[in-house]
Description:
About 25% of the residues lie in helices and about 30% in strands. By secondary structure, it is α/β, with parallel strands linked by helices.
Amino acid sequence: MCFLFVMLVFAPVVAQDYTAIRQQWLDSLKAATADILRDSIIRQDGDSMKLWWTTYGDRPADGRSLWISLHGGGGTTPEVNDQQWRNQMRLYRPAEGVYVAPRSPLEAWDMWCQQPIDSMYRVLIRTMIAHYDVNPDKVYILGYSAGGDGVWRMAPRMADHWAAASMMAGHPGDVRLENLLNTPFMIWCGANDAAYDRNRLDRERGVQMDSLERTHPGGYIHQTHIMEGKGHWMDREDAAALPWMAQYKRQAWPRYVIWQQEAVLRPDFYWLSAPAGELQRGKRVDAEVQAGTIIIRRCDYSSLTLYLSDELLDLSKPVTVRYLGKDKPQGKGKKVFKGKVTPSAETYRQTLHRRQDPRFAAPCRITVALPK
């Protein structure tokens, strides 16, 4: 038997409620991040990440873009990493947006993907939303060398945060790419960049992206550029990534989501949430929306919370949830919920404060227990 838990506050909701909730959140966010803007440093759990930023172009009607640009260096001296940071400040120039070059809080090859870097990226995004009117659907991440190492890992790990990502001259390691279904991704590497087998491995990962795109037509948008005649330095030809990325906005409510846990565990991803006590690297959820029905094709958890919005499906009609399970990829599956859901201002408030992203604030949520 499967059980359903519905977490909703049944109260009349009007659009003004949501506007007021977002404005209250934004006002508190401005106050909470004022010291970051003043000091140009994010401090967290004993670590600190210095920030340098500038703005380019005029503010568009839908808000500014944000470009997070990760420097190279890595497991070397602070002086070398400082020099690489200064280089990153001028390495790229988007046509529009807030361009931020953070200084890694660590001196290590994996300085851009160790904890607490995930939460620091989120704080950086929120700070720029609050103070520079950044559109959260126009946040881009890119990086060179060790910064490219970081993009390889952070693009899939935080795929629901990015409008697009570009990796320059980095090493992919053991990263998985499935989470990039809805995140356009670029690979740049010199054909002669043989250190640590970067050229061979980056080329192989491009082939993997090709395969994923064939499996999910319309998803896994990507380009792979293995630059003939180039070594580790690509003579700035990789700057072509910026206009390519800028054409995309984040899909905050994609109709198909693949979520696989990576090295840093997360309880939420797009419109999905898993039990905090069951998180483990490698666990996966595949979920799809088809004509008012949510199909859970695979779920490695005992239950799943679904955040619902009119951007995902028509909330004026009954919502159906079916579970196929990883051993039953075909067929209609088992119905685990069907019914009307009622939008709630309190649920909207709770999800906004949980996700700290106005685009993920949801007026409804349901939690379904899944049969074994």
